[in-house]
Automatic annotation (TrEMBL):
Keywords: Signal. This is BIG2 domain-containing protein. Residues 1-25 form the signal peptide. The keyword Signal applies. Residues 36-114 form the BIG2 domain.
Length: 300
């Protein structure tokens, strides 16, 4: 009897210990900690891009308990649009659609996205512009600019500003047939017209007798991209040598500090990239610069 009672007591104790461990195991199945990230939403300053253009994505992260609002960026189609994983800068690569995704660094289950549509890049601009009065003969293949103030598409502004400037009184046309003595004969038709960009700064110190004395710069609307730009300066009137020609295109020198002799012309070119939609031409560094024509062609 004593042995049987001992066995029963041992068995009872073992069962109690097993139940105790089972209860402890059940108590360890605690509920998951709720996320401190409520939501992630994404926007972009532009959702329709042409190939080569960029946009900026922004994540709005709603949190509790002062959780970090940081995200990492990714794209669902890097062949169409890429994104910088840290900054959210988007670049359009090829035609199509791609989702730009922001993922919370605190809770990777919380994400937001914006859809980007990429279209083909527009064709670059080609233009030929001749500067002369409205009354002068036109030049085949060239659009005439008569010195009108900038109108949002093309025209003249005060040098160093975007303030429109009327320079119609600064255009000139040299009629070779009417003056065979003073006007150089046999030039190209586009060289007989000019616009005096800096009437107030002749090298002789004597300003122009007609026209605004405020120095002007030319603005021309183009599709953003890379261009070869050729310019010509000069005066076919052999009596006029009071200039020091300089032309800059998008800040790049096309003609630098050229002092003409009688009836002398100078052409120059610059390879430039336009990113703001306007090609800018100025004469900074020159004096009484006289612009004849501008050729704008897409660069390879």
């Amino acid at each position: 009897m004593l042995q049987t009672s001992a066995v029963r007591r041992t068995t009872t104790a073992a069962l109690a210990l097993t139940v105790s461990f089972s209860l402890m195991a059940c108590n360890n199945n605690t509920a998951p900690v709720p996320s401190n990230i409520t939501s992630v939403t994404v926007s972009a300053d532009k959702t329709s891009l042409a190939i080569g253009e960029t946009a900026q994505a922004v994540a709005n992260v709603v949190v509790t308990n002062n959780a970090a609002k940081t995200v990492t960026w990714s794209t669902t189609n890097a062949n169409v649009a890429t994104v910088n994983a840290s900054t959210g800068e988007i670049k359009a690569v090829a035609v199509g659609n791609a989702d730009i995704v922001a993922t919370s660094t605190v809770d990777t289950g919380k994400k937001g996205k914006v859809t980007i549509t990429v279209t083909a890049a527009p064709a670059l601009t080609t233009a030929k512009i001749s500067f002369r009065p409205a009354s002068a003969p036109t030049v085949s293949g060239y659009t005439v600019n008569t010195g009108a103030a900038f109108d949002g598409t093309s025209g003249w502004v005060q040098e160093g500003t975007k303030t429109p400037l009327d320079m119609t009184a600064n255009t000139r046309y040299r009629d070779a047939a009417a003056d065979t003595t003073n006007i150089v004969q046999g030039l190209e038709p586009r060289q007989y017209g000019q616009l005096q960009m800096q009437c107030g700064t002749p090298t002789t110190g004597n300003p122009c007798s007609a026209g605004t004395l405020t120095s002007g710069a030319f603005e021309y609307k183009v599709v953003n991209g890379k261009y070869n730009v050729t310019v010509s300066v000069g005066d076919s009137d052999k009596r006029n040598t009071n200039s020091l020609y300089a032309i800059n295109v998008e800040g790049a020198s096309a003609i630098a500090a050229f002092a003409p002799t009688a009836g002398q012309f100078k052409t120059g070119s610059a390879l430039v990239t336009v990113s703001d939609g306007f090609l800018s031409i100025d004469a900074v560094g020159g004096k009484n610069t006289k612009l004849n024509y501008v050729d704008i062609t897409p660069a390879p």
